[in-house]
Design brief:
By secondary structure, the protein is of the alpha+beta class. It has helices at residues 13-32, 46-53, 58-63, 81-90, 93-96, 135-151, 167-182, 190-198, 209-218, 227-242, 287-290, 305-311, 332-347, 361-370, 381-386, 404-412, and strands at 36-37, 43-45, 65-69, 72-76, 100-109, 121-130, 158-163, 248-249, 261-268, 277-283, 298-304, 325-329, 352-354, 375-379, 389-393, 399-402. The chain has three domains: 13-166 and 226-317, Bira Bifunctional Protein, Domain 2 (BirA Bifunctional Protein, domain 2, 2-Layer Sandwich), CATH 3.30.930.10; 168-220, no CATH class; 325-412, 3-Layer(aba) Sandwich (Rossmann fold), CATH 3.40.50. It contains 16 helices and 16 strands. Strand 9 and strand 10 (277-283) form a beta hairpin. The radius of gyration is 28 Å and the shape is elongated. The structure holds histidyl-adenosine monophosphate.
Length: 413
Amino acid sequence: MYKRVSGTKDILPDEVICWQKIEEISRRIFSLYNYQEIRPPIIEDAGLFNRSLGEFTEIVQKQMFLIKNLEDTYALRPEGTASIVRCFIENNLDKTNGFVKLYYMGPMFRLERPQKGRLRQFHHIGTEVIGSTAPEVDIEVISLADELLKAYSISGYKIKINSIGCSKDKKALISTINKKLEGELENLCADCNERFKHNVLRILDCKNEACQAVINKIGVAHEHLCPDCLKHFSAVKQGLDTLKIEYEVSPLLVRGLDYYTSTVFEIKHPDLGAQDAVGAGGRYDNLVKELGGPQLGAVGFAFGVERLLLVTKIQEHIDTSKNLVYVISLGDEARKEGLKLLNSLRKEGIPSSTDYEIMSLKGAMRSANDAAAKFVVIIGEDELKKNVVMLKNMQTSEQKEITQKDLIKELKC
Ligand code: HAM
């Protein structure tokens, strides 16, 4: 028997209700903020991610699902930002709309070691705002994330923010950390010794206790930020204060992808365990240019939907009761009538179902119950003769004979 691939999930009908609710809320709030949906393909040229995320990032080095085809290498997208920037440039969206506010939902793929909240196929709900370097956009995007989380019935999360500065500042930060860590290599784990060679910023979020002790000892602050980046960062903090959005400045937060500059943020939830980020994002003011487009500022974030679902209380607010009408027809003639009735009910917009197995009234009533039907309509020989149907309310058990015309009127109100 075949089994699902490790690190993937079957989302069964009972769970789909929560997914649909999260998606519905997201669409409503994104459109309230005037964001438009975009749907790039899930398969891209692998080079796009090498270039955007960085050759030495964990994702590119170890986690890409690659498909080789003659000379081309494709990747199942590990994230959305690079795809959307590629799509923005390729479709000349900068020429039609200088400033775009986009959102997306869909599967992402990373070949990680599966654990709670860490999958190989997971889903993002994210946004990318392209075309401005104004700190007000960072504020809008962070407040949008906060608004979405509240609407998903999630509480207890913490928004952590930082600024890694422009490319020059980032280089200065890397070189300061390099110098500070040079004498500490023997106290760092093997992975961090590797990171030291190519991706020193990743050392800052290593979970290893010994590494954390070293990081706390060397101390990282904001001395690498130039006046413009400092100004931008204080404007972002002030805006969040004005909107009364709670956040914590975390100088060790640097994010694992190369494209980030300036503001970065992560939203953590204490109930998630080791994989505690429900979402994350930041600015990437050089990526559009690096991928062949104009110099345009951009900022975005993505939530991991599976992690949202681990902490949401949304199921408490979902009304699962259905106004389903279940048609039971007994006998060959009645079945023909039942088929016509089902058709009429559906044409009138009344959700309805039936069973297609020939069974006793008792068996059919059991099926109606299993389907959580609110009403049952029975057509037997007697009803056929009298040109009526029997309508039963499954909640009150009341039943009465009624003509088909009156039935539709009654079910519609
Ligand atoms: P990321 O931090 O790699 O950022 O992913 C965003 C969120 O996706 C994480 O906070 C987490 O909730 C979820 N996530 C990541 N990996 C997994 C996994 N293996 N299993 C389950 N959930 C996962 C990005 O991808 C950036 N593109 C976000 C962004 C948008 N930055 C700017 N714009």
